[in-house]
Amino acid sequence: MQKKYYQPEFETMPAEEIKKLQDQKLVKQVRYVYDNVKYYRDLMDEKGVSPDDIKSTDDLYKLPFLKKDDLREAYPYGLLATDLHNCVRIQSTSGTTGKRVVAFYTQNDVDMWEECCARALTAAGADDNDVCQVCYGYGLFTGGAGLHGGSHKVGCLTLPMSSGNTDRQIQFMMDLNSTILCCTPSYAAYLGESLREKGYKAEDNKLKAGIFGAEPWTEEMRRDIEKTLGIKAYDIYGLTEISGPGVAFECEEQSGMHINEDHFLAEIIDPETGEVLPLGSKGELVFTSLDKEAFPLLRYRTRDICILTREKCSCGRTFLKMTKPLGRSDDMMIIRGVNVFPSQIEAVLLNNGYAPNYQIVLDRVNNSDTFEINVEMQTEDFPDAPKDITTKEKKLQDAMKAMLGINPKIHLVAPKSIARSEGKAVRVIDNRRRYGITI
Ligand code: ADP
Ligand code: ZN
User: Fold this and answer.
1) Which of 22, 77, 306, 333 has its CA 20 to 30 A from that of 395?
2) Residues with beta carbon inside 6 Å of ligand 1?
3) Which of 232, 233, 291 lies closest to 260, judged by CA?
4) Structural domains in the chain, sorted by start
């Protein structure tokens, strides 16, 4: 049966009540973290703040920040707040220089995360009459698992396709009458083109809505996808450290994503000074989990730049809204939905005997990211026979694929042919910016 909200008691809770709920949960969560996570207890002790100093969300600013580097340093168990035997799941972001960020979940954590995804699906109009095709990757990546769980909670008939094999995706979509599509926006665009190439028109499929996230996309791209697939396209935001997709989701207004505030407390800070900024300001998004058991994080700096607003929304939800991420305050790139850091590429080059003289060139062709790396050959290798160069390029490409999970095109170029700059090396040429892609 079609419901407007998955959990109306929270999603439409008056703002003052949400604040009260957050106050209570925060006090508990801080005490829990202090008692169970030595890594964060040390940070609090260092800052001279004790759990007794946190009486409500107004005291949040007193707590120390957590950064991605802390998560790497504490890898793998340093931020775990409960015994491993209480945990039922591990998920992970893509790795950097071999050290991945892993997140742990108890069954309650998984339920909470899946409920957040169920809220997103319900906001997109999904119910137990729907066939929900999930083509986010399954595995350590949170996309597949999160939407899969949400789809079960809503009662959709779930098609756990995972990513890739476009012909099979299309066959199942048409034969099994998929009505909801979950994947990255670039894959949605690709699916749309593939359907068109096979001679299908928008009205030939039964799809009515899509939930697309994990990477930046533009309003133009949304309109394109909506037209080719004949659907309404919704954005969804999340990050593994905080749970996964569903931290925030779009409603029918399509004007920003509602943050699930009963579980996640959001702040905007100045990325340079760490100062908390008022609603409406552009800055770095910081999250504090309010009721996580295995991997609670307090004041986690996402590095995503966005704006938060609390305005009346026509959907009736009272949760804060965040804009799409407008950029990042670190050097992470998102390529085909995968997080990639230049440091990972440098590590592969060094391991394979190359100097770190390289340039990454990104572009978007047919709505899909292209990813090329120009790498300078060592002087002693130059000039090699073209056949040898091709072999070396292939070897380096395989090593990159093993580290990053995605395949770049490698070009070995002559020594000293990549321009040296006076200041910071220009490592990344991101031509996707001309399409409005800012990350
Ligand atoms: P995900 O499964 O969401 O990709 P990761 O933890 O691998 O999770 O990556 C999280 C990062 O992905 C976020 O910090 C943000 O930069 C980016 N991201 C996630 N969702 C979106 C979205 N809807 N729009 C833009 N960027 C997004
Ligand atoms: Zn709304």
Assistant:
1) 333
2) 93, 141-143, 213-216, 235-240, 244-245, 302, 304, 324-325, 334, 339
3) 291
4) 1-328 (3.40.50.12780), 333-435 (3.30.300.30)
pLDDT for 96 equals 47
Of all protein residues, the one whose alpha carbon is nearest to atom 16 of ligand 1 is 304
What pLDDT is stored for residue 326 in this prediction? Answer: 86
Mutate to test the pocket of ligand 1, among 237, 295, 328 (most ligand atoms within 8 A of CB): 237
- Structure-token pair, residue 7: 């959990």
With a cut of 50, list the residues of the chain below it in pLDDT. 96-97
Nearest Cα to Cα of residue 111 among 88, 77, 143, 138: 88
Q: What pLDDT sits at residue 239?
A: 95
Cα 279 to ligand 2 centre (Å): 17
What pTM did the predictor assign? 0.87
